[in-house]
Amino acid sequence: MLELYRRALHIRRLHPALGNGALVWDPLAGPGVLSFTRLPGFQCIVNFRPDALRLPGHDGVLLSSVLLEN
User: Fold this and answer.
1) In the chain, which ranges are continuous DSSP H helix?
2) H or E stretch including 43?
3) Burial (0-12, 13-18, 19+ Cβ within 10 Å), 44
4) Residue-wise pLDDT tens digits, 10-54
5) For the sheet containing 24-25, what is the strand order?
6) 49-70 in b/e burial notation, b at 16+ Cβ within 10 A?
7) How far apart are CA 33 and CA 47, in angstroms?
């Protein structure tokens, strides 16, 4: 868990969307899912459900707590 947190902090320093600015909550996220976007080109999705979540189209995943299927 500590390594996941360290990687998240590293990404936060590098990604331009994770500085100052507004975020927009995703109203279609559904129960048990937290999702928001920030400009330029960043979306955060946190799945609190016990089952897997299908990700929307994306260029890549920056951080995950589990291995992702292709």
Assistant:
1) 2-14
2) strand 42-47
3) middle
4) 988 988 888 888 999 999 999 999 999 998 888 999 999 999 888
5) 24-25, 33-38, 42-47
6) eeeeeeeeeeeeebeeeeeeee
7) 5
Do 20 and 37 form a contact (C-beta atoms < 8 A)?
no
pTM of this prediction?
Answer: 0.78
For residues 54 and 23, what is the distance between their CA atoms, to the nearest angstrom? 22
Distances (CA, A) of 36 to 2, 5, 60, 69: 24, 19, 16, 22
Q: Residue 37 belongs to what H/E stretch?
A: strand 33-38
